[in-house]
Amino acid sequence: MKKRFLCVLFLLLMQLSFGQNTLSWQGYFSFNEIKDISESPTTVFAASENALFSKNSTTNIIKTTTTVDGLSGQTISALYYSESAKKTLVGYENGLLILVNEADGGIVKKVDIINKQLPSNLKKINHFMEHNGLVYISCDFGIVQFNLKTAQFGDTYFIGDNGAQISIKQTAFFNGSIFAATSSGIRKAEITNPNLIDFSQWSTVNMGDWSGVEAFDTELVAVNAAGYLHRYNSNTFVGFFQLSQPATDIRSKNHNLFITTPNTVYVYNNQMVLNRQISNTQVLNDKLSFTCTTAVGDVINIGTKANGLFSSTLSGVSVFENNTPSGPVRNNIFSMDVATSVLWTVYGDYNLSYDPYPLDSYGVSRYNASGWLNIPYESVFDAKSMTRVIVNPNNEKQAYVSSFFSGLLKIDNDVPTTLYNEKNSGLETLTFLGPNYIDVRINGNAFDKSGNLWITNSLVKNGLKVLKTDGQWQSYSMSSIITDINGTSYGNIVIDKNGTKWMGTNREGVVAFNEKTNTFKKITTGEDSGNLPAADVRAVAVDTKGQLWIGTTKGLRVLSSVSNFQSDSQLKANAIIIIDDNLAQELLYEQFVTAIVVDGANNKWIGTLDSGVFMVSPNGQETKYHFTVNNSPLPSNTINDIKINSTTGEVFIATDKGMVSFKGIATGANENLNNVFVYPNPVRPGYSGTVKVAGLIDKANIKITDIEGNLVYETTSEGGTIEWDTTAFGRYKVASGVYMVFISAQDGEETKVKKVMIIR
């Protein structure tokens, strides 16, 4: 009996592991923009915009750390690995300090610098220098001391004239003194001086603006803002070499001095002889921009501004290898689309006024089970500012990308094949800037049930286009419904069950069109014109009940039924009124809504410009989740887009600082009950989340009882997943034990029974 119990427990623990993974957040970050690097005797550590990765030269294992692991989504500005403490220090532009413990991956956030009564733009952390267990942190206001053993901050040194705040770029310890490269000269003080907080204890060695200072065996080397290298002669710094560009980094390692400029890395030996000079063309091409350099053993590692980390052997000439973890091209994903087995992302954008300038040239990315594929700008027929992408629902190997300047790009089997523009399609360029100016602004896109692709063409008379399955184009004039054709840009477009197209606009609210009756209608501001809080509509979505959810720059509205298009001469949307603190309030009042999607249970996921993500119940009366940077792995509260994989229920959230996904909340309904499962299972002590029953058919009846048959919960599914808060009808938490989950179809012809173990 005991052996059988252990076997059952083992199986349940295996299910628990699966369940926890299913529930987890997942990060999809770009590691291409290397902000800083550090090293141990065996490992190189790199900090990208807001994530870390490391590569062990012995095992070749690459490890990543993101907001999902506890990092901040803010921008990283400095990185340091302490071999003595076995900790990685991460400094941020806003003054945040994070410690990552090597032993267990634990992350501790220190906000002391953030909390200093100083201007927020002066709190940036520029550099870490360790000496005798203390780390001297160079900031834009001065130097802060940090004790690695106690993880506590010490004194702060304001070393400018008369104790003024000055930007410290880097510090170095040399011959008993601490040297600081600042925007107002190189300052020096004896490190044993007990009164370093007194600015008068710091003397000026050299005047001027300095970008770095580094102790290098028996030398002390500094570089000024103009890129002129200097050596210290016990009294002053004397110039000896003018770099071709200002330096982005200077550091010593393994008896080598590495000086990095945007297009060249200089490697000096400890006799100050230039041993090697590496240009960006030797690593990749002349577009490559270097940011920093270090070495692990005989391996040189060079960080770049947009292409990740490159490595090669330091001795001799050899090929450089890119050691960057796979990911999207950049973190600022503007839009995306998700199908069952593929995800596409684009990076081109426009500002809040729909202005795409300056034009972007980023290419497009695809993610599937084999990983990331980044299609460069050179392969997309020079399509600029690509703002939306859509996967063909009838062919996941085909995608269409909207360019807000160049037209419509078609991709087949991961290969761009056609760029539709004013020359080879029904697409049009704007004309009010003259006949020779070509600017084809394509944005919103949606497939109808017949497989035709509908798209919006901004700033032209025929603003609605359709690419039919036979390859023919058709255009529809918007002049009968749009007041200012040349000033109207379009957001996204959705198509309802009746075939009506609903389009958000920047000036005219929501425009609706049905080609069967050739009818246009509009929902805009004003009590008698649609009741929108603003005419600038950024998101529209049709839910499973046939309601149209409308996100504007000043709040949310809902049209009770899309079928009203056929009957009502003037469509009207209404606010959702909720009761909060016994007061009637409007849901998302005055919020700038950027995205709305509907999950398999008809919940609404709503993205905002600066308040994160809201997940509300089908009728909007209950906010089930409100994810922000403070309570989730979201790297930013600025939400660019949200999409849901209807098969898995995974919710993808694109922000201006990276993309994450949230798993296991709601999925589309299944055709049968063959794949029903319960997670997490078992529910362990300390778990505060809900139990999910997934793989359901729509309108399934679910009853949960204890082992004796006492009913503790009952519900009917909407979509493929339901949640149970492990209470007996909300009255109290149920006790430890095995609970039975009885599932039956609405007609009673199909049933399923599952078990879940709860351990308190």
UniProtKB/TrEMBL annotation:
Domain of life: Bacteria
Lineage of the organism: Bacteria, Pseudomonadati, Bacteroidota, Flavobacteriia, Flavobacteriales
Protein name in UniProt: T9SS type A sorting domain-containing protein
Extent of the signal sequence: 1-19
InterPro entries in UniProt: PorZ_N, Reg_prop, Secre_tail, WD40/YVTN_repeat-like_dom_sf
Keywords, ordered alphabetically: Signal
Chain ranges of the PorZ N-terminal beta-propeller domain: 44-203
